[in-house]
Specification:
rod-shaped; 7 strands; five-stranded mixed beta sheet
Length: about 375
Amino acid sequence: MINMARTPVSIKKLKKINILLWVSVTIYVYTIDKVIVSLKGEPLYLVASLIYISQRWLSWIPATNMIVRYSLKYPLFERGFEFKFKRHFLRATVFALVMCLAEFVILSLYTYVMTLTEPDLNLKALLGVLGGWVLTGVFNRYIIYFFIAALVTSFVHLRHRHRSELETEQMRGKLVQSKLQALQMQIQPHFLFNTHQAIIGLLMKGHSQEAISMISSLSTLLRTTLDVSNEQLVPLSKEITIVSEYLKIQRVRFSDRLNVKIEVADQLAHAGVPPFILQPLVENSIQHGLGVNRSDEFLITVIADADGDRLRISVIDDGRGLVHNGESQKKGIGLKNIQSRLAALYSDDYRMSLRNIQPRGVEVAMDLPLVQL
């Protein structure tokens, strides 16, 4: 049974459509009838025809209301079709007979009144013709009944299907959002742990001033990340801010050895990217490049540009590169997390690559849909 309270089309709206439909049909049939009779040169009988045509078609206004309500209560196209079809067939039979009987009574009374004003009319002959007209209307009423029942049921099912698909899509979006938040919560403790270990290392070495500076930068970074913690996409400029604050922390550790170059076009400032997606890449470069027995300067370059409707982001370092001639080193939690988040958010509409570059270094590149926020 269809819940009428959840049916998208209200009963009041259906009633208005119903009235408009049958009034239009009545006017159309009456007009066509008079045109045909006029062309044949036969008497028009304007009033008589109006009464006959009006009672035949306008009687469908209350009849259609009843069919609609019954079809909503017992839809044709649901389980138990055979049982429901029998119920509809029985109801259609009673419905057709009652309408035909009412039509016969109304027209008989009118015909009788006509014979009083026009004695030349043969009442018995007129009633015989009238009876034939009424009986031929039984089959027509069957056809119209089941057409309305099928139309109403199909229309309501289509609307319910659309609503169901919409609810499913909304639920899928919520699931994706939950997954993204879970992955984001996974990477933030990882970052905090690494920073915490760095602060402890500075304190153990007696570098209290550097440790205080790192704690201050960490506080600023955490305030920034809280602003984007519940968002699926954030402006690229916000991500650059997060990376910049993170690099302030790392410069305390590595002093002047760490250099950074950021190349982002102004028009991409509001391009949407998943939050906290650049910092793990920069952290990965530092860990595998600068942190491996290296005393010279180390350069990290962040590049973002647009290619049509695509956003291309690269994080490049001049470290030692990948081992075994391009074979990837074991991916840490940062890279795995980013790939999982991109897959959850973009499905198959993204690319992520990790490769060596010449003369040395590694490039992590992402190709994402370009969305302006």
